[in-house]
Amino acid sequence: MKSYCFRLRFAQLVVAAFLSGAGVLVFAASASESDGVRPNIVFILADDLGYTDIAPYGGEVSTPTLSALAHQGIRFANYHTAANCAPARAMLLTGVNNHLAGVPNIPEMLAPEQRVYENYQGVLGSNVVTVATLLEDAGYHTYMAGKWHLGAAPDKLPSRRGFARTVALMDSGADNWEQKPYLPIYAEANWFADGERFELPEDFYSSRFLIDKTIEFIDGNLRDGKPFFAYVPFQAVHIPVQAPQEFIDRYMGVYDQGWDALREQRRQKAVELGLVPADTSMARMASTGDWASLSAERKRYEAKRMAVYAGMIEAMDFHIGRLIEYLKAQGVYENTVFVFTSDNGAEASGADDPEAFASRRMAASLGYHTDYERLGLKGSYNTISPSFASAAASPLAYYKFYAGEGGLRVPLIISGDPLVNANTLTHAFAWATDITPTLLSIAGVAKPGPRYGGRPVLPMSGRDLSPLLRGEADRVYGEEDTVGYELTGHAAFFQGDYKLVRNGPPLGDGEWYLYNILLDPGEVIDLKQTEPARFQHMLSGYEQFTRDNRVMPLPENYSQTGQLLSNYLAERFGTGVVVFLLTVLVLLPFLVAYRRPPAESARNKR
Amino acid sequence: MKTVLKIIVGLPAVLFVVMGLRWLVAPADIAPEFGFVLGDGLGRSSQIGDFAAFFLTLGVCILMALVSGRRLWYYPPAMLLLLAAIGRILAWTLHDATFAGGMIVFEIAVGALLLAASRWLPERE
């Protein structure tokens, strides 16, 4: 009998190896041997979460659920993603570089000159296949509840990209308390459920609602024996920063010492946790304000802005905890793998002084207030300033939209009983495109070939992180392996422990710098002069990356904010202007004919 | 008095031309104003083509009536509007459609205005 079982198992392994490749086989076997079924996967994506915003990464915010997941799994200290939303999501869900997948930037920031290129549409191309499609085709139930932002056309909706049940926000963000846009570029907050327009319930709060829907989706099919893949891209902590009062109250007074104190406090904690070296230095951003020079009233206001931000993070953690409790109650927690990360680094778009006239007018034009007492509650437009965003990214330089570590390096936790290497911290480099190959490996599903679903698809450039999860390897990227990145001229090129980086205006100078990000994650010591050969070699590597990934040159005088404004005006008023001109064109001949004297008309007739 | 009547008749003509052009230029924006979202494939083709033709015909016919002084041009738009109003009432009574009171009143009012204009504005010699 033992021999029969062994032969049966051996036969299964051979077939699986044939289908999936040896790497996939080994993990799938180890993940599913304990109970004989494939693991469920919950992929949780925070929005704009900074590197040290959660407790397992040195944050003072209470995140017991994420701490527990980190304790049972593996924390990545050196994981990187894109510097803004949609490009990161494209890579996370496909394993393909965002430029090739059609999302070099969010569509709201693409210039008309860029849109002439097929891969510069800002929506997920048909030349890539999502992890959801692959898992669904492999027998998984696939669910999504949260922000999509990869295309709102009917064929781009998540319900057409592999997710069987969805409730999804199409925009770059939206209000957390009601169905309301957060920027004037949107006429409304565009929510869809299962491919149809959707109206949010009256008692909506984003983090609670998204977990409620996730539980509802999972519960609908829980007893049919098939595994599930649940993708939960939270709105937290994207602007507007909003949280329930009870969560805000826990952080009142916590940030009274200001952003410099918080940035240093988090740096020390990150050192204690082993995330960064003990001698990590920090660069002070030019956008960081002088806390000491603020009035007592402004300090009180700034501290509350950050308290709301912390409350929003804790609320997200609380609701993730509800999902885990549900899975435990249903007896499926033990066979579920959790992946938690952020799409990009901390957001610094908030005004320095939101109570200034211009900021209040902007908020008021959207139907918001910025009152201190009601900050973070329904109707309130709250952000954190660049100064506190710098603390959220501590000890890293820069933040969202920039290629500095603060924009690209974020938490990544992979956890769950099916994994074998619990309570581990790794400094291995990892990149956003690695998530999809890793999830496929966990599920025992092969990567797609050159064609999928009857059409050609691009190969995944991401790597399977499973050897790290199993503790069988220290790194999956070798010393010579490279990863490139570009966003509106901000650029990075990783090779081994080194990073070549260029940050453009307004904060950067557009020059290239070279850092060893393992020893100097704060990007303070430029090695360009001391290692010129490496600098030139990596510069050549970056040029090759731009050619291989169809990175197009930036239009002259391009700026992210300027383009956003220009696109807004074109979107909002462009159609009206065109219709007006055409109307004039149509009416003009009638007007001329009407004003011509009848006698002249008669003469012409004769 | 006749000039005032011509202006009153001309205003909906401009409105109809604008609506027809909006159907051609930005159909997804105007479709919700009629209570539906823009469809796909053949449905989208029919929606854009038929609605643009409907409104441009309305507007151009009224403008032709004003410019040429021929009352014959008032009849096609009046018929279109009055039949649209009848269609809406039948849709409400027979096919469970929403009762579009405001639209029905507008269509009947403008249709009647056009018939009145055809009677009161003199035929050009």
What do you see in this structure?
The complex is a heterodimer of chains A (606) and B (125). Chain A has 606 residues and is α/β, with parallel strands linked by helices. Chain A is built from 18 helices and 18 strands. Chain A has helices at 2-20, 22-32, 64-72, 85-94, 112-115, 131-137, 206-221, 245-249, 259-272, 296-329, 357-365, 386-392, 405-408, 435-443, 466-469, 532-548, 560-595, 598-605; strands spanning 40-46, 74-76, 79-80, 141-147, 165-169, 191-193, 196-197, 228-233, 336-342, 412-415, 424-426, 430-431, 451-452, 455-456, 482-487, 490-495, 498-502, 512-516. In chain A, the strands form 4 sheets. Chain A has a 10-stranded mixed β-sheet with strand order 7-6-5-4-8-1-9-10-2-11, with helices on both faces. In chain A, strands 15-16-17-18 form a 4-stranded antiparallel β-sheet, with helices on one face. The model of chain A is unreliable at 1-35 (pLDDT under 50). Chain B has one domain. The relative contact order of chain B is 0.15. Chain B is 77% helix and 0% strand. At the A-B interface, helix 17 of A face helix 1 and helix 3 of B.
Fourth-level CATH superfamily of the domain at 34-243 and 317-342 and 402-477 in chain A: Alkaline Phosphatase, subunit A
The main β sheet of chain A shows up as: 10 strands, mixed
CATH class of the domain at 34-243 and 317-342 and 402-477 in chain A: Alpha Beta
How are strands sequenced across the largest beta sheet of chain A?
A: 7-6-5-4-8-1-9-10-2-11
Tell me the helix content of chain B.
over 70%
The number of strands of chain A is 18
Largest interface: A-B, 13 and 18 residues
Oligomer: heterodimer
- Series of secondary-structure elements of chain B, N-terminal to C-terminal: HHHHH
Q: Cα-atom Rg of chain B, whole angstroms? A: 16 Å
Q: What count of structural domains of chain B?
A: 1
Shape of chain A: globular
CATH topology of the domain at 34-243 and 317-342 and 402-477 in chain A: Alkaline Phosphatase, subunit A
Describe the global form of chain B.
globular
Strand content of chain B: under 5%
Q: What's the mean pLDDT score of chain A? A: 91
Look at the structure and give the mean pLDDT of chain B.
92
Given as residue ranges, the uncertain stretches of chain A (5+ residues, pLDDT < 50) are 1-35
